[in-house]
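Handoff note, outgoing to incoming analyst
You'll be picking up this chain. Sequence as last confirmed:
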Amino acid sequence: MMLPDHKTKIVCTIGPSSSSEEVLRGLILKGMDIARLNFSHGELCHHRELVHRIRKISSEMGKIIAILVDLPGPKIRVGELVKEPLLLQQGETVVLTSSTELADESFIPIDYPKLTESVFPGSLIYINDGFLQLECLEVSGKNVKCKVIVGGELTSHKGVNLPGAGVFLEPVTEKDLLMIDFALDEGLDCFSISFIESADDVKKVREYAASKGKQVFLVAKIEREQAVQNIDGILLEADAIMIARGDLGVEIPIEDVPIVQKKIIHKANLLSIPVITATQMLESMTSNIRPTRAEATDVANAIVDGTDAVMLSAETAIGKYPQDTVEIMAKIAKQTEKWRSKSKTGIYQMKKAMSKMNLQIDDIIALQINEALQQLPIKYVLVPTASGETCRRVSRFRPDSWIIGLSRYPNTCNSLAFQYGVYPIFVEGTVTDWEHTAFEKLKEYGIYAPGELVIITQGQTAGHGKKGGTNLLKFIRLE
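Most recent structure output, in case you need it:
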């Protein structure tokens, strides 16, 4: 096999367009690293079939594909319209209602019982990621009379945002917990948590999984203003971050989104926490064979910012060209990484930022590895790991060389699928000599190159999936 020609990870949302075995194989060949299952849609029995299918194909192809369960969270949505699509005309008056009994087909049902407690005259209400905008005129009983500011077609189940309003919903719902139970029973351990507001929301899921005797990898989705305000605490609790720009772009002023994205990515990079940049990255490819220039630039800018992964949503879930979309994403990543490597700006910025940190031994080792990579033609950095921590610390410098993460723990391998420039390899059974095992794995994967220089890290052994601490690195010329 050949290692990918790009190191940015690609997340693909799996849906009707991509659920067949043939298309899934194509997505993996083109560059998919993570398969996202959106539990807001579809039946659990269908998700079970997809899990089994993805595992079967990834095993046959010899590549670790992490499966990310995206929990629905407390998303406020339009209910079932009596007649759809409903055309909202700019300037007209419409009525939103939390009542389950509609007076007539012109009423718009909202699946949120406390709608009238969250809005007041003058409140703005955004529907479908802000493509439809309403202004509250009057609140009465269970009804909210609104003026249409930006109109268009409305269909059932579109998302509703109430920016600046108090929303009386728990970020982690009972439905989420039931879905976690299902996923854990299927052996899944990667979850993204929607609409979180603080670190406590992440902790709730972690503690719930722990009560079931499970360790989980948790991705905190940043899509509410409160989450942006509490980002430092969230970063200390979460295993990864997703910048979900769809809802975020209506929860905060849209002109603030690019800078918020940059700040969050930088904070996460410093802490070696993987970041996924999501929403509308190549949206036009849902129906077109090529993206817009602006979309290609958006993907490239996220990579320059330091994102570990880029995500495709509708593009691969319901789009006409799922495989072509992944191929384009990979090509953009390859060219952007090539430019960043020549400019060296990311390395200098990271070293400067780290000089102000309280560094640990693992950080010093990572710095030494980075220095060696700048001076010597090193093919791979081989990292035997229990937790994946050393891989993540080396990765934040965005090296040109692949970091090969070797682990006996499947959950660690899954987590490393999210990390820029890390290729995870599962090692079965007990290992007495990691150096020998690493070389054998390189041969097994067909990437052993005699005469090439490699680095291998070593450290004390820790328990299952726990940090052990790297305190040694070794240079070896492959024979």
